[in-house]
Amino acid sequence: MIDRDLFPDAYAFALQQINHIVIVEELFISRLGSSSAPHESTNTAVIPNFEELEGRLSESADWFESYVDRMENGSEKVAFVFADGKRGMLSIDEILFHIVNHSSYHRGNIARALDLASVPHPIDGYGIYIHEKEPARRKT
């Protein structure tokens, strides 16, 4: 965790990046669920505290995991309106790829903020993640 008193800029930047990640995820959850958009923008004027963002990210991760478990057709197209008002259409597979790619990009930015604040962070690669999630893969 970044010490907000010693590194206020890095802390604020990391929170803003997490906020943006979760907003984009929540927007795509609403698109995949055919519900109204929960946000009008991909950022907010007021950034929630870390605990709230952590809870929302956890809820988002649980939702996506459950969605993928019951998903039947990744090539199905979903039409929607982006936060900037432009129309869009992506397949479910493309939306899922976007969520992973988008979050990875911003996690890299957060990792840089952690570096600037001298906070060690875990390796953030898929290979590490999947082997922690499925330890039996290490027994090959």
Strand and helix map with partners:
Blueprint: H1 8-32, H2 50-70, E1 77-81, E2 87-91, H3 92-116, H4 126-133
Antiparallel strand pairs: 1-2
Helix pairs in contact: 1-2, 1-3
Pfam family, one: DinB
Organism: Congregibacter brevis
InterPro entries: DinB, DinB/YfiT-like
CATH topology: Four Helix Bundle (Hemerythrin (Met), subunit A)
- Rg calc: 17 Å
Helix share bin? 55-70%
* Main structural class: mainly alpha
What does the overall shape look like? flat
What does this structure look like?
The chain has 140 residues and is mainly α. It has a single domain, classed as Four Helix Bundle (Hemerythrin (Met), subunit A) (Up-down Bundle), CATH 1.20.120. Helices cover 56% and strands 7% of the residues. It contains 4 helices and 2 strands. It has helices at 8-32, 50-70, 92-116, 126-133, and strands at residues 77-81, 87-91. It has a two-stranded antiparallel sheet with strand order 1-2. The protein is flat, with a radius of gyration of 17 Å. The mean pLDDT is 93.
